[in-house]
Amino acid sequence: MNKQVVIIGGGFGGLYAASRLKDAPVDVTLIDRRNHHLFQPLLYQVATGALSPADIATPLRGLLKHQRNARVMMGEVVDFDTDNRQVILRDGTVRYDTLIVASGSGKNYFGNDQWSKWAPGLKTVEDATEIRRRILGAFEAAERESDPEAVRAWLTFVIIGGGPTGVEMAGALAEVAYETLRHDFRSINPADARIILVQSGDQILPMYHEDLSNRATAMLQRLGVEVRTGGRVTDVNAHGVTLSSGDQQDFIAARTVVWTAGVRASSLGKALAECTGAALDRGGRVVVEPDLSVPGHPEIFVIGDLAHAAHQTGEPLPGVAQVAIQQGRYVGNVIRARLRGANIRPFAYQDRGNMAIIGRGAAIAEIGKLRLSGRLAWPAWLAIHLMYQADVENRILVFIQWLWNYLTRSRSAMLITDRQPSATTTQTRLSVKLATDSGTWPRIG
Amino acid sequence: MNKQVVIIGGGFGGLYAASRLKDAPVDVTLIDRRNHHLFQPLLYQVATGALSPADIATPLRGLLKHQRNARVMMGEVVDFDTDNRQVILRDGTVRYDTLIVASGSGKNYFGNDQWSKWAPGLKTVEDATEIRRRILGAFEAAERESDPEAVRAWLTFVIIGGGPTGVEMAGALAEVAYETLRHDFRSINPADARIILVQSGDQILPMYHEDLSNRATAMLQRLGVEVRTGGRVTDVNAHGVTLSSGDQQDFIAARTVVWTAGVRASSLGKALAECTGAALDRGGRVVVEPDLSVPGHPEIFVIGDLAHAAHQTGEPLPGVAQVAIQQGRYVGNVIRARLRGANIRPFAYQDRGNMAIIGRGAAIAEIGKLRLSGRLAWPAWLAIHLMYQADVENRILVFIQWLWNYLTRSRSAMLITDRQPSATTTQTRLSVKLATDSGTWPRIG
Asked: Could you write out the DSSP letters of every residue in A323-356?
């Protein structure tokens, strides 16, 4: 019988690991809470109404349907039984010979989870459409308001977190307010909107060289964004945000706040550490060996945002798509090599450079020692954003909509869609046990 | 001061009335609960994952932004004060000289509103994404199930209502199950899915000639749909649907049920009738004069699905897009004519024909006495579905995705997106009064 490889998470890491195992003599099971792979770097475009969710999300089954040794399971992993090599789902168990944990990361409110109600994060499709609803709804509310102070609060938007997500969000939001919606209202002038990007450190985009960060700040300011550094957020509520700097406190009245200020590793890191004795770093990431396996457990790999992989430079690799993709491919290669009885070198990340887009036509980029900034040739912007799209159709659609939006300065998906009443999701309505303990694949009818 | 024309509803009727008043010496206010115009005839394509909501919905502000005499207001109308010529919103009032009520229709469960929980209708974007979630979730649940009877229930889909919406939904769903998802699963075979279309009368598509309805039935059956006529639904619950025919009762175990069996006029019809003494028909539609105004109230028009306009033939015009569009334009013309002191003839509907699409490539059509059926030349299908798209971009996007889907037999938007926790919508969070009583337009800053 084939070795059972179970992969948790259908993001970049899990997906690339699965497809690297195509035609290998293993059976692959990919488990995800959702049915789709999400291109997270473009979520901010859904949140600002430029793209639809389906433009950046692709069903996992569709991506893997022609890979005969792979099956997709929609389910939620809650724990592990590493002694018996089982993954424990909310409603079942799955056996494995080799396990790849690639469940990613979520939002980190640094102990203030109650802020999440007023400052949603941006990690999932639902996050993005909710933020979109709040942004567009704020302009609608301002249009109906007669009290000038209330209008100002509705037209003030605060983005907390000056990393790539916050910067890209701020730039896009400035374009929404100052260009896209310019003629749409009669009582208010959307150009009166204030967009404030808040960063606790001294520098936005701290992972870039200081010169590039300064360029990015200037670009944002040219777009109309107010960049505020050096102040920590000490409160978020329905009315706005409080920033503290030393003794000074500053309240910003804002009805719409977005949180992009921290990530926290998936809770499965903790579950894995409890089973295996692995160490976790401060962000909850699992410290892994040079071959990305859990110490003492060569049959368990951790990759992507959940992994703390520091053997190359002493510093852990960042939680970015590039790293997850390369790690996914690497682990696929390791598994293949082991089946052949071959050795394989430790994981060696190759940094192909990073880029942050500021609004529609400007960017900063750092490739090794090369630093670039300025107006972005649109082919380059396009190429980069399309590069990792999971399938050809999405590339065409994103291209068409991008081109349309660029030429007409419009945005394609500025819908306010209501939230639905709460309910349990499909998988928790099930109480099933999988028939996988028998060790055979169920035959198709 | 210009006459104030207030239009309630941004569907086909309201939108075409508003744009017909472009450059007329009036001020137009279009009020809708939502921020977008929805192309309802293609909602079933969102519900079956072929299109995204933004492909068939366009923000009203964007559509009207270059019409200087028009403004859009997002709000919910709850009542009228026709003596004082005021529209009463949940959170304000709006004054009018002329009123056009075009608030459309909603679902009708014929007194069994509790069925709506298990058999959602298909009138809004949220309805469509919820139905999509249930359909795709059913296949996911079936894939995880080990009990064969439960698998069968998850793979049984019932569509209640054999009108155009139900028929188109059934055909599309058959293609999802038997083509799109064909290779996507490993434990189940999606081809085992049962799709059952239930019609209480003897004939599906009763508005068409019997020959065409029979053709449509045959086309559906060729697609794999079971068409059941002559049975009334007497119960819907979490486990399935009960059909009754004479003494006989039949329970169909089905976890996914969709309701397309009845429409009921917007509740504003009742509110209007109470103020004006207008008569309502059995479906709640307002009986109007030959010029579509409310009897005794020449300043109030009712158009679209909310209107019972029977003067042409004795039978009321159907609640279809064509009728709403022509009535919208007509009322715009009446208002213009009155301003010039001219007379205008009664409304005369011109039936340009109807078409129902059965799956991807077949249709029936009736144009006057001309009856057509069969494999549809795809240019015709396309032309018709694109014809009423509100803007050029949507036409391009729908065309691209349609072409892709047609050639690859795939579907573009098969996402399961979770429902969000319940909350009040933006407009009910406001408690504002509009400053419109002063009679002046607020100036833009």
From this structure: HHHHHHHHHHHHHHHHHHT---PPP------EEE
Do B268 and B77 meet the contact criterion of CB atoms below 8 Å apart?
Answer: yes
A370-375 and A362-367 beta bridge pairing: antiparallel
Element (H, E) at A72: strand A70-74
| Residue from A154, A183, A411 whose CB has the most chain B CBs within 10 Å, to mutate | A183
What is the dotted CATH code of the domain comprising B3-33+75-107+264-339?
Answer: 3.50.50.60
* Contact present, A233 and A183 (Cβ < 8 Å): no
For chain A, domain boundaries = 3-33+75-107+264-339, 113-261+354-408
φ/ψ bin of A403: left (φ > 0), alpha (ψ from -120 to 50), beta (otherwise): alpha
We find that the CATH architecture of domain A113-261+354-408 is 3-Layer(bba) Sandwich (3.50)
Provide DSSP, B209-225: -HHHHHHHHHHHHHHTE
Interface with chain A: mutation pick from B73, B134, B140, B408, highest number of A CBs within 10 Å: B140
- Can you say how many angstroms the Cα of residue B297 is from the centroid of all Cα atoms in its chain? 28
Assign residue A189 a region (left: φ > 0; alpha: ψ between -120 and 50; beta: otherwise).
beta
- A113-261+354-408 shares the fold of A3-33+75-107+264-339: yes
Q: How far is B129 from chain A (nearest CA, A)?
A: 10
Structure confidence by residue, pLDDT tens digits, A281-326? 999 999 999 999 999 999 999 999 999 999 999 999 999 988 999 9
pTM of the complete model beyond 0.80:
yes
Q: Which residue of chain B has the CA closest to A436?
A: B146
Q: N- to C-terminal Cα distance for chain B?
A: 21
